TrEMBL record, chain A:
One of the Pfam families matching this protein, by short name: HTH_3
Residue span, HTH cro/C1-type domain: 9-63
InterPro entries assigned: Cro/C1-type_HTH, Lambda_DNA-bd_dom_sf
Entries under SMART domains matching the protein: HTH_XRE
Organism: Anaerorhabdus furcosa
Gene Ontology MF, one: DNA binding
Protein's recorded name: DNA-binding transcriptional regulator, XRE-family HTH domain
UniProt KW Acetylation keyword: no
UniProtKB/TrEMBL annotation, chain B:
A Pfam family the protein falls into: DUF2178
Keyword Transmembrane: yes
Transmembrane region(s): 9-31, 51-72, 93-110, 116-134, 155-176, 182-206
Presence of the UniProt keyword Transmembrane in the record: yes
Superkingdom of origin organism: Bacteria
InterPro entries referenced in this protein's UniProt entry, alphabetically: DUF2178_TM (IPR019235), MFS_trans_sf (IPR036259)
Protein name (database record): DUF3796 domain-containing protein
Organism of this sequence: Anaerorhabdus furcosa
Alphabetically ordered keywords of this record: Membrane, Transmembrane, Transmembrane helix
Amino acid sequence: MDNEFTCNLKTYRTLAGLTQEQLADCVGVRRETIMRLEKAQYNPSLKLAIDISRAVNAPIEDIFIFK
Amino acid sequence: MSKKTIKYFVLGGIAVVLMLLCSIGYSVLFNQSRLVEPTDFNTYHFIIQDTPMVLSGLFLFLYVIVLIYQIVKAIASKKTNDNQHTRTISPKLGYLGFAGFMGFSGFLTYSIDHTLFPFIFFTFFGFFGFFYEGKLSNILRDELFILNEKKAELSAYKIGFIILFFMIWLIGMGLFRNNTEWIAIFMVITVSCIYALVLFLSKYLLYRYETKEY
């Protein structure tokens, strides 16, 4: 289940000028969670996905692409 | 519970105890130790001199009730506030797991007076889990952590149930030749050890999932 999607979070996070730590603080998770999300090793909840999408100012379907 | 509330409770407790001591003194000196010595309430009749003892008993009862209520409230509120982070404990608490060896004292007590109770101490082996829990002290319980926590607990329960099933199966197949006493000992030891294993594994597996390198 962990590898059923690809995640472009790193690209959009960099574009938004945020570090992993800053994004983690912004959405209320740990840096480790952001790290695993970027490696597409963790399938986030809808709430977290929306929070991240708002934080990096990018459409949710562009960040998380399900195969 | 705030420091002010705790102060009030300590002062209140001292006042209640003093009131009770005074009432006991009064009863012993002037009221033939009524309500101080064991009283048969079937034949008891209230007299006005009993009032100090009755009142102080009532205050003590109310104090205990309010104290219990405040403690429960404080624990519940602490749980709600601290739910966002894991509890802070020292990994050194893991050494408490060695207390599990006290379970072997059950063999001694059983040989002396057939007491099985000390075998329950084998559950203390589960305290070895504090070692791993301590390493994950005071970190944010975000959704990944909660997911890992549930995954670890589920795996631990699964392993525990499999072992329990095998133990029951072994006994059902006639292990110990249906000697009830030996079966009782075996079951107490097994269930205690399984309980300890589940406690330990749920913490150990969580640590593994949390620190897993990808």
